[in-house]
Amino acid sequence: MINVLIRVKSAATLFTRIKAAGSKQQVISGAVVADAQKTNERRLRRLRQMRKTRSITYASENLAGIWKGGKEPDSIVLRSALLQADGERSRLTKLVLPRGIALRFYLLAVFEAQCRLDVGDPWRNVLRLKGPGSWSSLVAIDGPYDTESGTYDSALQGMPAGLHGSAQAEDRWRRRKLEDRRLQQVKGALRTLEDLGQENALVNIDRGARGQRLYETFSLMEEGGRGDKKVPDSYTVPAPHWSAKTITIPKDFFLKGWIQVLNPSEVATWLILRMMSQWAPRKHHRSGVFLTTGPRMQLFGLRDDAWEDGCQRLRDFGLIRHAEPPETEDADTDRMMRKFFSQPTRVRQPYEPHFWQMTDEGLTKDAAATVYNALAHRQRALDTAATERAQHDPGTLASNPQTAE
């Protein structure tokens, strides 16, 4: 049912489809609308807070400092092994999680490495975990939120009573608490990246005498994971290949804040589309790329809901666009290409796009402002749909109240 929500063109279209579906369908769709409202509003609230505290600006400025102080690469090269499924899922899709920053942190570590190292150079950690110029300073978060009060004032808990009432003191306290929170997020990301398993782990963390993790000594692994050999596949900077072995990520993905504001499923969808577009550039330029469910699950392990929602949000943000499918297939298209770019077997509705094209010019825009405006527009559409539905059947809305966050 989530596809009913993410594919509609407008709130009015949504309401029309719900109305035509019958009473049972109305109840289900009402729950979907309410859930989408809550999820979208939560994301707006977090983004609003990060803009207020300049968290995204702070992280982006630190990334820019690393870039300018290093080799200033135009693109970051990523081994496609990160995307490729090994069995049911890929390392990439295992990092599509509702909480945490594991995927973001790994990509940030790759960015830092390629700003500092030459192709083939081995990675070693040169940053602290906390403080100015640290790993924590490269991450934007909103901070702890108090659901009861509906504010971020829980950050002031534990503050000495004598400092309350001083705007300057409260601001310093909030910044210190936010720094502590960023450190917690970084440590959580390192645990997640290591806990992918012996062979798939994307970091290795030394242990102390009592078995505790020594986070400061973590080592970065290649995109294919630690491997099954005694000597781990430690990270080295890859060279770009004109094949499916690597993909390139424009620097603006990091420097304009996109790495901070896209959620993991959007990042995963964007990387998969990017790989496809670079693997088949003429096909991408002429008619766009598309993956049916079977090949997508087999190759990348990304499920339908994450893919569909990711594509729709990336389109809203201006990072991809609809592309018209070709009228006929080229005579020289091989069987592998036909498999990847085949039309779905079931008949799709006209409003469902089949092919996508990357729009890298969208990366040059300020990510925080772009995403906030798109989400605000979506929230208005969702609210309108909910209001129209409530006017049509007030009893259904009352039976499906939004739960508190």
Give a nutshell description of this structure:
With 405 residues, the chain is mainly alpha-helical. Helices cover 49% and strands 6% of the residues. The chain has helices spanning 2-7, 11-21, 23-52, 55-68, 91-94, 102-116, 167-194, 252-255, 258-261, 264-279, 281-287, 293-299, 304-316, 335-340, 367-392, 394-399; strands at residues 75-79, 85-86, 89-90, 203-204, 219-220, 246-250, 320-323, 355-358.
Notable traits:
405 residues; mainly alpha; two-stranded antiparallel ribbon; 16 helices; 8 strands
Describe this structure in words.
The structure is a single chain. Strand 2 and strand 3 (89-90) form a beta hairpin. Helices cover 49% and strands 6% of the residues. The two termini are 22 Å apart. The chain is mostly helical and 405 residues long. The strands form four sheets. Strands 1-6 form a two-stranded antiparallel sheet. Strands 2-3 form a two-stranded antiparallel ribbon. Helix 3 runs antiparallel to helix 15 (367-392), helix 10 (264-279) packs across helix 11 and helix 10 (264-279) crosses helix 13.
